[in-house]
Please model this.
Amino acid sequence: MRFAHLAAGLILACLPSLATAFEIEEERRFAAGDEAVELRILSTADLAVFAPVVEAFRTRRPEIAVHYRTVSSAVLYEVIRGGTAEADIAISSAMDLQTKLANDGFARRYRSSLTDALPGWATWRNQLFAFTQEPAVLIAAPAAFEGLEMPGNRQELIALLRDNAERFRGRVGTYDPRESGLGYLFATQDARQSEAFWRMAEVMGSLDAQLYGSSGDMIRDVESGRLALAYNVLGSYVGLGPGVEVVELADYTHVMLRTALIPANAQRPALAGEFVDFLISPAAREVIADRTGLPPLDTDDLLQNPAFRPIRLGPGLMVFLDQLKRRSFLSAWVSAVVQP
Model:
């Protein structure tokens, strides 16, 4: 089995202790003068994606400077928990880790008329606030499916892979949940949703599935033709080029919610609350939809697609963060996918 280089691991006790320094992937200060009040944002969203949202906020509050830093979901969790991040807002796609932070007392409560208007599945305890809904999809290179029908659900995907093993051997990609926090979230949610997940994992393993740490890498390999298909890719990251077809599986399509929280040690909690309100406001939804490529929170859109299943915020997300459950799950996954 070939797979991407594995990082040190993701969760809780598996993470190294971080002191005052931590790895920052990108950083930018949206300046408003040396003496300006500064809002500090720690986020897993790429700067290129999220900059339009920050700029739209500063259009309303031009006197506010914003210091934006991009980190991994694992680093964000650890430094918020350790109180070393000096952040007023923490934004992450790792819903389970965000929930754990809130549950363990590392997030402030905040409430406004805008947060009260969020649907129940998109907020938790006035501490977590969702502002995007991003489906986990199957992506495929149409050229690799010549003479075959594109699968519409997981049973059809399993049958397709089994019946065409030589065509797809080494050309199927998915997340490595040992490396990717989002991959671990999607895998555990799949396992809770359907027994078909383990049958599919075994089939992918028998085909020498390629394992990845990010959606972006999977998308690039499908676009290049190296992969025929990739499973559980964030649909919001997929471009509109001719080399990739997006398939929202009809049995169910998990929808990840990108969330914001205000850390317990935030120095400017009132300003952070303003930013939360902006993120979930109609004005920000328009900016998110038009300028970031991310799907903003939209209940009507979910109702139009009955296969969409938003991953609900709440204590259920913490079940697989328990170290014994995590080890057990990953052991079963390795047995199924990383076959000798």
The mean pLDDT is 90. The two ends are 7 Å apart (CA to CA). Residues 134-254+329-337 form a domain with the D-Maltodextrin-Binding Protein; domain 2 fold (CATH 3.40.190.10).
